[in-house]
Automatic annotation (TrEMBL):
Domain Cytochrome oxidase subunit II copper A binding: 119-230
Enzyme class: translocase
Protein name: Cytochrome c oxidase subunit 2
CC cofactor: Cu cation
TM spans (from-to): 34-58, 79-100
InterPro entries attached to this UniProt entry: CcO_II, CcO_II-like_C, Copper_CuA, Cupredoxin, Cyt_c_oxidase_su2, Cyt_c_oxidase_su2_TM_dom, Cyt_c_oxidase_su2_TM_sf
Membrane topology: Multi-pass membrane protein
Keyword Transport on entry: yes
Cofactor binding summary note: Binds a copper A center.
Pfam families: COX2 (PF00116), COX2_TM (PF02790)
Gene giving rise to this polypeptide: coxB
Catalyzed reactions: 4 Fe(II)-[cytochrome c] + O2 + 8 H(+)(in) = 4 Fe(III)-[cytochrome c] + 2 H2O + 4 H(+)(out)
E.C. numbers: 7.1.1.9
Protein backbone atom coordinates (compact mmCIF):
# COMPACT_ATOMS: atom_id res chain seq x y z
CA UNK A 1 0.00 0.00 0.00
CA UNK A 2 2.87 2.36 0.78
CA UNK A 3 4.22 1.89 -2.74
CA UNK A 4 0.83 2.72 -4.26
CA UNK A 5 0.45 5.99 -2.35
CA UNK A 6 2.94 8.06 -4.44
CA UNK A 7 1.40 6.69 -7.63
CA UNK A 8 -2.14 7.57 -6.54
CA UNK A 9 -0.95 11.05 -5.55
CA UNK A 10 0.50 11.64 -9.03
CA UNK A 11 -2.72 10.40 -10.65
CA UNK A 12 -4.83 12.81 -8.56
CA UNK A 13 -2.51 15.75 -9.24
CA UNK A 14 -2.59 15.07 -12.97
CA UNK A 15 -6.27 16.00 -12.94
CA UNK A 16 -5.63 19.48 -11.52
CA UNK A 17 -6.54 22.36 -13.78
CA UNK A 18 -3.68 24.82 -13.33
CA UNK A 19 -5.17 27.91 -14.97
CA UNK A 20 -2.08 30.03 -14.37
CA UNK A 21 -0.15 27.74 -16.75
CA UNK A 22 -2.60 28.48 -19.56
CA UNK A 23 -2.22 32.27 -20.02
CA UNK A 24 -4.66 34.30 -22.11
CA UNK A 25 -3.20 37.82 -21.79
CA UNK A 26 0.13 39.60 -22.08
CA UNK A 27 0.55 39.96 -18.29
CA UNK A 28 -0.42 36.35 -17.63
CA UNK A 29 2.19 35.18 -20.16
CA UNK A 30 4.94 36.97 -18.22
CA UNK A 31 3.77 35.39 -14.96
CA UNK A 32 3.64 31.93 -16.55
CA UNK A 33 7.16 32.32 -17.94
CA UNK A 34 8.40 33.12 -14.42
CA UNK A 35 6.72 29.99 -13.07
CA UNK A 36 8.45 27.85 -15.69
CA UNK A 37 11.86 29.41 -14.98
CA UNK A 38 11.40 28.91 -11.23
CA UNK A 39 10.26 25.32 -11.76
CA UNK A 40 13.26 24.55 -14.01
CA UNK A 41 15.70 25.86 -11.40
CA UNK A 42 13.93 23.91 -8.67
CA UNK A 43 14.07 20.69 -10.73
CA UNK A 44 17.77 21.23 -11.39
CA UNK A 45 18.50 21.59 -7.68
CA UNK A 46 16.28 18.61 -6.87
CA UNK A 47 18.03 16.41 -9.45
CA UNK A 48 21.49 17.28 -8.09
CA UNK A 49 20.37 16.59 -4.50
CA UNK A 50 18.84 13.23 -5.39
CA UNK A 51 21.87 12.12 -7.43
CA UNK A 52 24.23 13.00 -4.59
CA UNK A 53 21.90 11.34 -2.10
CA UNK A 54 21.91 8.04 -4.03
CA UNK A 55 25.68 8.16 -4.60
CA UNK A 56 26.39 8.75 -0.91
CA UNK A 57 24.06 5.95 0.14
CA UNK A 58 25.76 3.51 -2.20
CA UNK A 59 29.26 4.58 -1.24
CA UNK A 60 28.89 4.85 2.53
CA UNK A 61 26.25 2.26 3.37
CA UNK A 62 27.30 -0.19 6.06
CA UNK A 63 28.77 -3.47 4.88
CA UNK A 64 29.98 -6.44 6.92
CA UNK A 65 33.61 -5.68 6.08
CA UNK A 66 33.28 -2.02 7.08
CA UNK A 67 31.02 -2.29 10.13
CA UNK A 68 33.88 -1.48 12.51
CA UNK A 69 35.47 1.13 10.29
CA UNK A 70 35.69 4.65 11.67
CA UNK A 71 36.75 7.24 9.09
CA UNK A 72 39.48 9.70 9.91
CA UNK A 73 38.47 13.20 10.84
CA UNK A 74 39.04 15.66 8.02
CA UNK A 75 39.52 19.40 8.10
CA UNK A 76 37.18 21.76 6.31
CA UNK A 77 37.16 21.84 2.52
CA UNK A 78 37.19 25.50 1.53
CA UNK A 79 36.49 24.73 -2.12
CA UNK A 80 33.29 22.84 -1.25
CA UNK A 81 32.19 25.51 1.20
CA UNK A 82 32.66 28.25 -1.38
CA UNK A 83 30.92 26.14 -4.03
CA UNK A 84 27.74 25.45 -2.05
CA UNK A 85 27.63 29.11 -0.99
CA UNK A 86 28.17 30.64 -4.44
CA UNK A 87 25.88 28.33 -6.44
CA UNK A 88 22.67 29.36 -4.57
CA UNK A 89 23.58 33.02 -5.12
CA UNK A 90 24.05 32.38 -8.83
CA UNK A 91 20.71 30.57 -9.08
CA UNK A 92 18.97 33.42 -7.26
CA UNK A 93 20.61 35.93 -9.60
CA UNK A 94 19.43 33.94 -12.64
CA UNK A 95 15.90 33.98 -11.25
CA UNK A 96 16.07 37.63 -10.17
CA UNK A 97 16.73 39.05 -13.64
CA UNK A 98 13.49 37.84 -15.34
CA UNK A 99 11.54 38.42 -12.12
CA UNK A 100 12.56 42.08 -11.86
CA UNK A 101 11.96 42.63 -15.59
CA UNK A 102 8.49 41.05 -15.53
CA UNK A 103 7.55 42.88 -12.33
CA UNK A 104 8.63 46.21 -13.83
CA UNK A 105 6.76 45.54 -17.08
CA UNK A 106 3.55 44.67 -15.23
CA UNK A 107 3.64 47.32 -12.49
CA UNK A 108 4.82 50.17 -14.74
CA UNK A 109 1.35 50.15 -16.30
CA UNK A 110 -0.16 51.21 -12.99
CA UNK A 111 2.69 53.15 -11.37
CA UNK A 112 1.07 56.56 -11.83
CA UNK A 113 -2.58 56.50 -10.80
CA UNK A 114 -3.06 60.11 -11.84
CA UNK A 115 -2.01 59.40 -15.42
CA UNK A 116 -4.97 59.28 -17.80
CA UNK A 117 -5.47 56.21 -19.94
CA UNK A 118 -5.12 56.38 -23.74
CA UNK A 119 -8.36 56.82 -25.65
CA UNK A 120 -8.27 53.29 -27.06
CA UNK A 121 -8.06 51.69 -23.59
CA UNK A 122 -11.19 50.23 -21.98
CA UNK A 123 -11.56 51.51 -18.42
CA UNK A 124 -13.67 49.55 -15.95
CA UNK A 125 -14.43 50.69 -12.40
CA UNK A 126 -14.46 47.66 -10.10
CA UNK A 127 -16.19 47.88 -6.73
CA UNK A 128 -15.80 44.94 -4.35
CA UNK A 129 -18.47 44.35 -1.73
CA UNK A 130 -19.32 41.59 0.69
CA UNK A 131 -20.01 39.46 -1.27
CA UNK A 132 -20.14 40.48 -4.93
CA UNK A 133 -18.32 42.38 -7.67
CA UNK A 134 -19.77 45.41 -9.45
CA UNK A 135 -18.29 46.47 -12.80
CA UNK A 136 -19.05 49.91 -14.25
CA UNK A 137 -18.00 50.86 -17.79
CA UNK A 138 -17.28 54.37 -19.09
CA UNK A 139 -20.76 54.70 -20.64
CA UNK A 140 -22.36 53.99 -17.26
CA UNK A 141 -23.29 50.36 -17.91
CA UNK A 142 -23.06 48.31 -14.72
CA UNK A 143 -22.95 44.54 -14.27
CA UNK A 144 -22.76 42.31 -11.21
CA UNK A 145 -20.41 39.32 -11.22
CA UNK A 146 -20.17 39.50 -15.01
CA UNK A 147 -17.26 41.08 -16.85
CA UNK A 148 -17.05 41.46 -20.63
CA UNK A 149 -13.79 42.51 -22.30
CA UNK A 150 -12.61 43.02 -25.89
CA UNK A 151 -9.83 40.90 -27.34
CA UNK A 152 -6.49 42.54 -28.23
CA UNK A 153 -7.34 45.83 -26.53
CA UNK A 154 -5.82 47.23 -23.37
CA UNK A 155 -8.13 47.08 -20.35
CA UNK A 156 -7.53 49.06 -17.16
CA UNK A 157 -9.38 48.29 -13.93
CA UNK A 158 -9.79 50.93 -11.23
CA UNK A 159 -10.23 48.84 -8.10
CA UNK A 160 -11.88 49.96 -4.86
CA UNK A 161 -13.67 48.30 -1.94
CA UNK A 162 -16.66 49.46 0.08
CA UNK A 163 -15.88 47.40 3.19
CA UNK A 164 -12.89 45.09 3.77
CA UNK A 165 -9.77 44.13 1.80
CA UNK A 166 -10.51 41.91 -1.18
CA UNK A 167 -8.24 40.57 -3.92
CA UNK A 168 -9.10 40.75 -7.62
CA UNK A 169 -7.83 37.72 -9.56
CA UNK A 170 -8.49 36.22 -12.98
CA UNK A 171 -5.87 33.41 -13.07
CA UNK A 172 -5.62 33.11 -16.86
CA UNK A 173 -5.60 36.87 -17.47
CA UNK A 174 -3.70 38.60 -14.67
CA UNK A 175 -2.02 38.31 -11.31
CA UNK A 176 -3.72 39.16 -8.03
CA UNK A 177 -4.31 42.78 -7.04
CA UNK A 178 -5.46 43.92 -3.60
CA UNK A 179 -8.73 45.83 -3.49
CA UNK A 180 -8.75 48.12 -0.45
CA UNK A 181 -11.29 50.54 1.00
CA UNK A 182 -10.60 54.27 0.55
CA UNK A 183 -7.76 53.60 -1.88
CA UNK A 184 -7.71 53.02 -5.64
CA UNK A 185 -5.46 50.40 -7.19
CA UNK A 186 -5.11 49.82 -10.92
CA UNK A 187 -4.57 46.69 -12.96
CA UNK A 188 -4.00 46.58 -16.72
CA UNK A 189 -3.57 43.86 -19.31
CA UNK A 190 -4.41 42.98 -22.92
CA UNK A 191 -6.61 39.86 -23.41
CA UNK A 192 -5.23 37.68 -26.21
CA UNK A 193 -7.77 34.84 -26.38
CA UNK A 194 -11.56 34.84 -26.64
CA UNK A 195 -13.50 32.69 -24.21
CA UNK A 196 -14.92 32.61 -20.70
CA UNK A 197 -12.55 32.78 -17.73
CA UNK A 198 -13.23 32.42 -14.03
CA UNK A 199 -12.48 35.30 -11.70
CA UNK A 200 -12.54 35.29 -7.92
CA UNK A 201 -11.62 37.02 -4.70
CA UNK A 202 -8.25 35.65 -3.56
CA UNK A 203 -8.37 37.22 -0.08
CA UNK A 204 -10.54 35.76 2.69
CA UNK A 205 -13.12 38.48 3.26
CA UNK A 206 -15.83 36.93 5.43
CA UNK A 207 -18.38 34.14 5.60
CA UNK A 208 -19.47 34.62 1.98
CA UNK A 209 -15.96 34.65 0.55
CA UNK A 210 -16.52 31.49 -1.51
CA UNK A 211 -19.39 33.23 -3.33
CA UNK A 212 -17.23 36.12 -4.58
CA UNK A 213 -16.75 34.67 -8.05
CA UNK A 214 -17.41 36.21 -11.43
CA UNK A 215 -17.28 35.29 -15.09
CA UNK A 216 -15.00 37.11 -17.50
CA UNK A 217 -15.98 36.89 -21.16
CA UNK A 218 -13.43 37.97 -23.75
CA UNK A 219 -15.11 38.66 -27.08
CA UNK A 220 -14.24 40.28 -30.40
CA UNK A 221 -14.23 44.07 -30.76
CA UNK A 222 -17.52 44.01 -32.68
CA UNK A 223 -19.23 41.80 -30.10
CA UNK A 224 -17.96 43.97 -27.25
CA UNK A 225 -19.23 47.21 -28.82
CA UNK A 226 -22.60 45.60 -29.50
CA UNK A 227 -22.85 44.30 -25.92
CA UNK A 228 -21.78 47.66 -24.47
CA UNK A 229 -24.50 49.47 -26.43
CA UNK A 230 -27.31 47.22 -25.17
CA UNK A 231 -29.30 48.08 -22.08
Amino acid sequence: MKKLFPLLTLVLLSGCNLRVLDPASDSAEKITDLIYVSFAIMMLVLAVVFVLFVLFIRKYKERPETSDYIPKEKKENKLLEVTWTVIPFLLLAILAVPTVKATYDITSKMSDLSESEPEEAVVVDVEAKQFRWEFTYENGKTTINELVLPKDQKVTFRLTSTDVIHSFWIPRLAGKMDVRPNKENRLSFVPRVTGTFQGKCAEFCGTGHANMRFETKVVTQEEFESWLATE
